[in-house]
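Sat 14:20. Reprocessing the chain from the morning session after the first attempt stalled halfway. Input below, unchanged.
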Amino acid sequence: MSKSYETYQKRRLFTSYFSVVLSISLVLFLLGLLGLLVLNSKKVGDYFKEQIPIVVFLKDSAKEVEVTQLKQSLALAAYTKDATYVTKEEAAEEHSDVIGEDFMEYLGDNPLQNSIDVRVMAEYVTPDKIEEIVNDIKSKSFVDDVVYDKPLIEKLDSNVRKISFWMLVIAGVFLVIAILLINSSIRLSVYAKRFTIKTMQMVGATKRFIRRPFVWRSVRLGFIGAIVAMFGLAGIIYYADKSFPELQIIQDKLLLAGLFLFIFLMGIVITWLSTYIATQRFLNLRTDDLYY
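Finished this time. Tokens:
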């Protein structure tokens, strides 16, 4: 009878610990995932900004040396990510592939122009800076026109700012929710031992002596929960890096190390603080109040 009761108690204790670790790891994992999104929201925005080309159309009368100089100056410019020279023949071939027929057969001539496709660094993709770059390129006498998607750049620049702001707000709200959820799990765990706490206090044990095993147990559970969360987050990061290599998520090792350290510290600090407050509350209660 006693052995079965001990087995039941051990199983109950293990289930309690498991549920606490699971809740901590899930909350920390979601918090880390949101942190990863916040850290990479700028990267995602920058990636889309750098996909918008500035197309420089050259006059047919442009000399080869002028075109070569322009290509070199654009390639070496601080704002340039990459610059690609596209001949009128290459442009015609690409256009034919898009429309599915050779338009030169019935036109008899190639109306397209030689051009340079310029992709600009993300920090320069703002309406004002792009306009300065375009005006500078247009000042060349052999440049016929410079075309870019102005409405898209304006909308993208505005939306990236809004998304970054709201991501920070959501991260802050979720951080508070995470603290409350972990605190609730720890409080329930301590609540189950409230009579043990009060019994120890009644036989003369000091508050510090009573708190110590509860705090250390919770910190260990927080440590395990944080490790589980970090392994889960590492798996997500690995998968995301393989699926979207252009974002180079793993390249920012310092940011990722900071994120993992944040998760680890949250698991330790929240569990320690929650246990301290919960045990202190039951230590200060009267014996009659333990039943409510």
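The first helix runs from residue 2 to 49.
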